[in-house]
Design brief:
Layout lengths: L8 H12 E4 L2 E12 L5 E6 L17 H6 L2 E3 L1 H15 L3 E5 L7 H12 L8 E6 L2 H5 L2 H6 L5 E7 L4 H8 L6 H13 L3 E7 L5 H12 L9 E4 L5 H9 L2 E2 L2 E4 L4 E4 L1 H10 L15 E2 L1
Length: about 290
């Protein structure tokens, strides 16, 4: 699975926060790199933030979240201005949803709280649903985060699980296996605090057994959770195909975004070989350290 050094995403969060967050006159400023209208959720006002605590090999925005990149990209916005920009887009486009994307929004958590407070003061807030897209690690690490989010009934937290097991989590992110459980703790804390929660699972990197175990773990939190699970399939954009190939991580199912078709088996092999420019063994069994999922 490569020779990259295993890292601690909680400590990385602290390092990243110093580069993307600062306090001035009681306001928590956060780095963004754009505000835009997107098609997600049937139309959503989106703020793309800078900085993450994971380095997922299938992440579309990994290039903007590396250590050198976060220092040179983006601009600081205070919670009031961020709320105004997001609400303005939502109003102009008649969107119901507002979301933050591109990085990990729980880094600089107080910015989120101040942002939500500003949105709640808006005349539009009762027509808006705020979707907090997160990997859940910091919510699982700091239980009080779930309690703070419960104060805002218009919030939905979408926890994106990275793999279905600690081993898959490590292969996908490069982070220590022991941090996988913080994602599950986040879901537990959110449910305990009655926060509207969606659990997103990218099944491309899960095998049958790990997926089955994960679903059983989730069901232990409550049978209703089954209706809150969303299954996703990785899209093999060229940069992602190259990254997965070089890391020897091979999804069992994927989407070719160029043709918008579902791929399996040899079709995935072919795209990943293109990504590695022919450096992938044709016979999967010849790739030592390769993770076949």
């Amino acid at each position: 699975m490569g020779t990259h050094m295993i890292y601690n995403p909680i400590k990385l969060s602290e390092i990243v926060e110093k580069n993307v967050v600062y306090l001035s006159n009681g306001k928590i400023f956060r780095k963004y790199y754009r505000f835009r209208a997107t098609k997600f959720y049937g139309g959503s006002s989106t703020g793309d933030i800078v900085g993450c605590n994971l380095s997922c090999k299938y992440c579309w925005s990994l290039g903007t979240n590396t250590s050198p990149a976060i220092k040179g990209i983006g601009f600081y916005v205070d919670p009031e201005e961020a709320a105004l920009r997001l609400l303005s887009i939502a109003s102009q486009k008649s969107f119901k949803y507002i979301r933050l994307s591109g990085g990990e929004p729980t880094i600089g958590f107080d910015h989120i709280l101040q942002l939500l407070k500003n949105i709640s003061k808006s005349a539009l807030f009762d027509k808006i649903r705020f979707i907090l897209e997160t990997n859940g690690i910091l919510i699982g690490y700091k239980k009080n985060y779930a309690g703070e989010l419960s104060k805002f009934p218009f919030v939905t937290v979408r926890v994106s699980l990275k793999g279905c097991s600690p081993n898959e989590f490590n292969a996908i992110t490069g982070a220590g296996e022991e941090f996988y459980d913080y994602q599950l703790k986040a879901i537990k804390y959110l449910f305990e605090n009655n926060v509207d929660t969606i659990v997103a699972i990218t099944i491309s990197f899960c095998n049958k057994d790990s997926f089955s175990r994960l679903v059983q773990q989730l069901l232990e939190l409550g049978e209703d959770i089954i209706d809150r699970i969303e299954l996703e399939v990785v899209k093999l954009y060229p940069s992602i195909a190259k990254r997965l190939c070089k890391s020897k991580i091979y999804p069992w199912i994927a989407i070719d975004p160029r043709k918008n078709v579902l791929l399996r088996g040899e079709a995935i092999e072919r795209i990943l070989r293109e990504g590695c420019r022919g450096n992938v063994d044709k016979d999967p069994s010849r790739s030592q350290g390769r993770l076949n999922i």
